Automatic annotation (TrEMBL):
It holds the Pfam family Rieske_3. The keyword Metal-binding applies. This is Arsenite oxidase large subunit. Residues 123-489, 530-593 form the Molybdopterin oxidoreductase domain. InterPro entries: AioA/IdrA_3Fe-4S, AioA/IdrA_lsu, Mopterin_OxRdtase, Prok_molybdopt-oxidoreductase. Residues 24-120 form the Arsenite oxidase subunit AioA/Iodate reductase subunit IdrA 3Fe-4S cluster domain. The keyword Iron applies. It comes from Thermus brockianus. Gene3D superfamilies: 3.30.200.200, 3.40.50.740, Dimethylsulfoxide Reductase, domain 2.
Amino acid sequence: MALIPRRDQLPIPPKNAKVYNQVCQYCNVGCGYKVYVWPVGEQGGPKPNQNAFGLDLTSPQAPLAGQSYTETMHAITVGKDGRQYHVVIVPAKDSPINRGDYSIRGGTNALTVWSLDRGTQDRLTYPLLRVGDQFQAITWQDALTLMAGVIKGIRDRDGNDDNIAVKCYDHGGSGQGFEDNYGAGKLFFAALSVKHIAIHNRPAYNSEVWGSRERGVHELNYTYEDARLADTIVLWGANSYETATVFYVEHMLPNVQGATVAEKQAAFERGEPAEPGYTIVIDPRKTSSYTLAAQVAPDRVMLLQPNLGTDYILANAIARVVWERGYYDMAYLQARTDMALFEEYKQKSLKLGVPYAEFMREVERITGVPRAQIEKAADWIAKPKAGRFKRRTLTIYEKGIIWNMKNYDQVAAIVQLAVLTHNIGRPGTGCGRQGGHQEGYVRPPAPTPGSIYRGGPPVNVDKFLTDGKGKFYWVIANDPYLSTPNNQVFRKRIHERTEKLTRALGEGGEPGTIGERVRKILDVLYKDPDALFMVVQDIYMTETARDAHLILPAAGWGEANDTSINCNSRLLRLYEKFMDPPGEAKPDWEIFKWVGLRIAELYRAEGKAQEAAKFEFGKNWRTDEDVFLAGAEEFGDNRVSEEDEAKLEAENYKGVTYALLKQLGQKGIQTPVRRDPKTGQLVGTVRRYTHKFGTPDGKFKWYGTDDWEGYP
């Protein structure tokens, strides 16, 4: 039986259907989509002048090249006016990312649209308050009063925010873009000072790629075109066919097949050889990304299978081969990198003091990868082409590296290999993350430490909570009961702590007013240090939400305007709102705004105007764009030359407006966005670090990775 019932026909969008630009809510690729919305009861016709597609539907669409439209791309929703509307979400032909193609994920975007005829009818629509073992709907006014009262009560008793813990996204896509991220940052970092905050997919607030950033290379530095232009693509701990499907099949695979040779000839230097690309997959498992490429070009695909956790040793071994065989440009290294630190890299990472044969024997023993494969990989990555032209290699890594043992050294070793071979900043090169989702980070400075070399690591919030610390836990758009490491222990412990508060609130009768409930919650929290008050903010009743004391209904993808960048190009686009959220659900930024304003009211009532002002950050936010523009002020001055783009934050969009993004449509603009000093025009950045690296002196900072002795 099919998961989605097959239908004989689908409704055709009429000529007057409203059309919106959208971007897929799922993976890092950021495929473009068109959304068509029109009232139920109206219908378009099959002729080009009768439908919003502008297509002749009297005959089948051409395979692969035609407009895709399936049962999973259609839904019926209900507007605020009570009318039913058709919603059709199809891949956009004018998107440079997917070119009308789509993945199995993106092809189901319409199934997530709030509708009364499928599972989405279970969306959270009103704030819910736990009373005993039941939830009852309450007004937003009561929900905000409860939130503000408990937060302020904890601050007043403690004199700080150290008993407030948060689990929140720090990304884009899925309805959380720059707008919601900025709202969260203003509340948690500028108004409050929350140190016990964890990112949605890990138990602390920290970057996974300090090993690259502290070298001067932000992890998003290449563009999708580089996958088409590369002589060699290295997928290191990244299974792109499964987790970045369209990026793989639309851009990587055509390169291996030889379909992009003409593009290479146009982009390369005069006389530089251009041929079908090579692919190196580095993964302990034989992934689908390897097997698919091997079917197309078995002689141009290689699989290296290192022992778990030994990738940085493998990367250093490839770099040692590069050094021994002279596959580097010393003039480039001297001009663009810190040569004093390079000496440490040569001794610690390349181990130049150890004879080459002895070095390679040790590498083979630890990594399990044969010397011949390592040397062949070095040739594919860096051996000059005919005419002494440098090879162009694009290296993409993901969870297999960033969630690896010795994460810092793993990432550092890979990016250093790329710089050693001058494979950053040129067409067809780059070294960065594939990404798990799209990005959209803009916040005030966080009161948390950075990497292990800059005051870190930050607090493990999961352990903080399971150790019985903290009194207020706010979970936003994630489900730690299912996803956090060691989740069964975490779930059991948080249930114990929240249950203590729930039982205590019921003793002697539930409080009759919100004010009484606030007072009783605070009394219990300070009488029993193990009790915990939990709030969940989401679009569904998650597993974590079942233990919450208060649930806040949020808007989802397509129910507000938001902006994000994809990972393979840093392409900033407007994800246009095409429907209203159900019931009284609100965008996250608006929830943060109202919580802040309610806290401000309580402080003003006590005559504490200065403290109240900190929480009034959103008083002038009326629209999604208001938040977007306010967030831009967190970025530095972007009036810099092309040669100085490395000085800019990776996601800097200062000067960009919704009007510009609507004008650009699926084409978007690549961050960091510069305002050209000569013309005053906003200019996107295709690829990064062509001229300088992102360090104070513009030079790449080498790092000698940890020694191998005793490595398991």
